[in-house]
């Protein structure tokens, strides 16, 4: 079956079900995207520079990036084989369409003709083949586990790339819309050290200057296949401002769009700046290494989950934004299993009983690692666990040291930043080689359940039940403690127009700034 530009948004290319409640903005953006100048004429002349307050990537190489949040910055410079739209559904990217074999054991992506990388070299089927093979085989690849069902890749002419699969897998178009499908120039990939600071892709912008930890300056890529929708010439990426200077940065024009925390929203809105609040796919989670005592006993982990009052976390630590969850997917998402809602209700007495049953009648001492010292969620979790006899001390992770690689900390307050495919998400969290699986164990039944879900086309009525069963197997057998959904906040100058609310990867097509 062939999926092209004019296919319905929820076809084989997309998630069959994504009814994510609240994905619309809670505060509308002034103006609308316009590439014909109509909105610009009404509001004033178009400016040439947009400055975004967001995190700089840990590396500009999508193959070795170990931070889920990197995908937003990487999407500025790389285009993937496919894209995801505002609802998280797959749509054409470098490939203008794709065709699955009748048996589902291979999928051919039909590239747009005449594509080039930002260095001017040809982006053809051979380049895509090389890029995907590097992701699958590179020694330090963090995306290789997501390509496990790809047996081999062939370039069938200049514009056709076929992925031959070890099993039926209809998740591939979703999988290739994120870091896994972002294509790096084969010439640039020969020097991974240089690529880490100087990307060469085919995305909407080209990196011109980069000061790690400080700023990235980019310019519009005229060779980007959708360049007509890129309405700013210069794009500046700076780390998110400190809460104390967010308003000042917006007032001074240092930032046109700035990522915020929930605690900043009230002050920024009071200063007169519009704030986009979008319920997105990521969730807050406690990473747990179940090969380390006392977390090796399932009842200790269950006691931790039972001791946590998720609604209190949402109300007190997250200013009322988000919803409690006991799984990695929010309500309304195709992989969300309703049977897991309220899986471990808050009950301090029950948590104490579970500890006693696990051999800790007098309680237990644990250390909870935080990403930053001022995270209010960590402090509230500490209070809740202490009340149940889980005596918790807080420590701050060593800056720049990736715990997914070192696994130094067995108990960590984290955020799962979702993946474009729910199967990919399950693999990252629970697969034996999953990046966020600190213990590197996996339930015996999970691979089969995941394979079964992957074997259903995304429009198959049987698909939701299959992927939800895989979610249930993973969550009820693995130690991860999920907490609440994430809301993405973006304050912006009133002069910024055309921002859209994306449940997954943030994009800037159609966005422009008044002078």
Strand content: 15-25%
Indicate the structural class. Answer: alpha+beta
Q: What is the straight-line distance between the termini?
A: 47 Å
Q: Percent range for helical residues?
A: 25-40%
Number of helices: 16
Residue stretches low in confidence (pLDDT < 50, at least 5 long) are 1-43
Biggest sheet descriptor: 8 strands, mixed
What's the short version?
The protein is an alpha+beta fold and 515 residues long. It has helices at 38-43, 70-77, 125-137, 172-175, 186-189, 192-195, 246-252, 262-270, 298-307, 310-317, 348-357, 376-387, 403-406, 422-430, 446-454, 463-477; strands at residues 2-3, 49-53, 82-84, 90-92, 95-100, 106-111, 150-155, 160-165, 205-211, 215-220, 234-238, 257-260, 275-288, 364-370, 390-396, 411-416, 481-492, 496-497, 512-513. Helix 9 (298-307) runs antiparallel to helix 11 and helix 14 runs parallel beside helix 16 (463-477).
């Amino acid at each position: 079956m062939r999926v092209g530009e004019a296919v319905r948004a929820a076809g084989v290319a997309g998630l069959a079900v994504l009814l994510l409640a609240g994905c619309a903005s809670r505060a509308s953006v002034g103006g609308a995207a316009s590439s014909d100048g109509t909105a610009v004429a009404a509001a004033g002349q178009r400016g040439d520079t947009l400055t975004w307050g967001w995190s700089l990537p840990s590396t500009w190489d999508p193959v070795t990036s170990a931070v889920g949040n990197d995908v937003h910055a990487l999407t500025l410079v790389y285009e993937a084989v496919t894209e995801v739209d505002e609802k998280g559904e797959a749509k054409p990217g470098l490939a203008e369409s794709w065709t699955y074999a009748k048996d589902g054991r291979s999928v051919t992506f039909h590239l747009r003709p005449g594509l080039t990388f930002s260095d001017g070299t040809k982006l053809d089927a051979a380049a895509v083949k090389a890029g995907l093979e590097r992701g699958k085989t590179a020694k330090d690849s963090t995306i290789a586990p997501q390509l496990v069902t790809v047996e081999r890749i062939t370039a069938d002419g200049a514009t056709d790339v076929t992925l031959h699969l070890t099993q039926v897998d209809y998740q591939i178009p979703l999988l290739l819309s994120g870091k896994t499908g972002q294509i790096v120039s084969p010439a640039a990939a020969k020097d991974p050290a240089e690529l880490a600071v100087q990307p060469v892709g085919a995305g909407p912008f080209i990196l011109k200057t980069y000061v790690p930890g400080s700023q990235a300056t980019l310019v519009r890529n005229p060779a980007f296949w959708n360049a007509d929708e890129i309405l700013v010439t210069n794009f500046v990426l700076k780390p998110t401002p400190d809460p104390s200077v967010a308003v000042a940065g917006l007032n001074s024009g240092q930032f046109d769009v700035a990522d915020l925390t929930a605690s900043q929203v009230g002050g920024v809105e009071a200063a007169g700046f519009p704030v986009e609040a979008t319920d997105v796919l990521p969730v807050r989670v406690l990473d747990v290494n179940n090969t380390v005592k006392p977390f090796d006993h399932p009842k200790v982990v269950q006691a931790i989950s039972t001791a946590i009052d998720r609604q209190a976390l949402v109300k007190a630590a997250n200013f009322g934004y988000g919803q409690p969850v006991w799984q990695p997917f929010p309500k309304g998402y195709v992989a969300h299993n309703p049977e897991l809602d309220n899986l471990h209700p808050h009950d301090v007495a029950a948590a104490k009983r579970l500890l006693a049953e696990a051999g800790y009648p007098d309680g237990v001492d644990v250390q909870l690692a935080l990403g930053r010292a001022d995270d209010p969620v960590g402090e509230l979790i500490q209070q809740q666990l202490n009340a149940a006899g889980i005596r918790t001390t807080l420590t701050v992770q060593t800056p720049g040291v990736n715990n997914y690689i070192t696994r130094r900390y067995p108990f960590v307050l984290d955020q799962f930043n979702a993946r474009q495919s729910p199967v990919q998400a399950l693999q990252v969290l629970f697969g034996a080689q999953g990046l966020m699986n600190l213990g590197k164990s996996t339930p015996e039944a999970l691979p089969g359940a995941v394979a079964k879900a992957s074997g259903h086309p995304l429009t198959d009525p049987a698909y939701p039940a299959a992927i939800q069963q895989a979610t249930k197997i993973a969550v009820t057998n693995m130690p991860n403690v999920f907490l609440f959904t994430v809301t993405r906040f973006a304050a912006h100058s009133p002069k910024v127009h055309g921002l859209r609310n994306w449940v997954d990867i943030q994009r800037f097509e159609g966005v422009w700034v008044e002078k």
